[in-house]
Prior knowledge:
By secondary structure, the protein is an alpha/beta fold. The chain folds into 2 domains: 2-266, Aldolase class I (TIM Barrel); 275-326, no CATH class.
Amino acid sequence: MTFVYIQNPISSTTLQERVEFVSDQLGLQPKELHSFNPHLKKKQIVLHLPKTFEKFIDHTNLNVQLKSKEVQQLCADAIKYQFRGVCVHSTKIKQVHSLLKNTDLRICTLIGSFPESNAIEGQLIQAKIALKSGANELDIVLSTSKILNNEYNELYQHLKSFESILTEGSQLNVILETGELDTPQIIDACLISICANVKCVKAIQKFGSRGSSRKNIRLIKFLVGLNRHVQSFDQFSNPKSVWDMINNGAQRIGTNNGIELLNSNAKIKYRHNSNKNKNKELTNKKSLLSKQKQKEKKKERIKDLAYVFGLSFTTSLIIGNITKKLK
């Protein structure tokens, strides 16, 4: 079994500053925010690495003009390749639900628009219809402009307004445009999401230059902890780019070319972040060899002493052990 270790990428000072700032903006006590995610004080979290990534893929096509036959093919592929779920435009949910109702695949849809979501009233209506049609995951875009302007309480109240309409088994996700945000802003957005009981933070690379880099995925994963997921959404060019994200904490992959990625992955050896394991094995081997050499040297010294004093090897060995205990 292979594991990936996500080290705390934030200094304790920076984290404390962000926790205090966000708590103040939301009208909470810092200890209340910590209670939503107790592991924030830990040095690392440990994730189990899969041997293949099909269960991580959200098969995605948000095209509103998607035809009925294309929806059928999308769902058939998701079933065939055992993907985690399907993500479509809200107008396609009803058909997708009818095609996937006898499976355990998740059905996700975008509420509002990208990059900036529309009015909350319209979003709530759209969300209720989507849930009634069979969706069990709702993606809400976190407004980049509100993050940049520190309008945190408004963001928080926006997300909290969906809490009352969620049905059993459904969840709220957020889409975070990391390309336009710096590290403190990403931290703040994640802390707000945690407080609003968001289950997955989706880092998307679309408009900004930074995008859902490995560094950002690792940062977000540490912040949201083990009970929440991180998705990297991108047009992945090869399996290695997918493994890079998984090795840094992504537990979901949003893409429309999952089939090509899986087929390519089948042709290469499974890649994972095993450098740490290899280094540990190498260290253990060196340590074992060093101990063996020390034992051999000890035996040689005892033999020399036995020869000098005319003692047997066994007698010298007993004397040596007694002397060692007396020390």
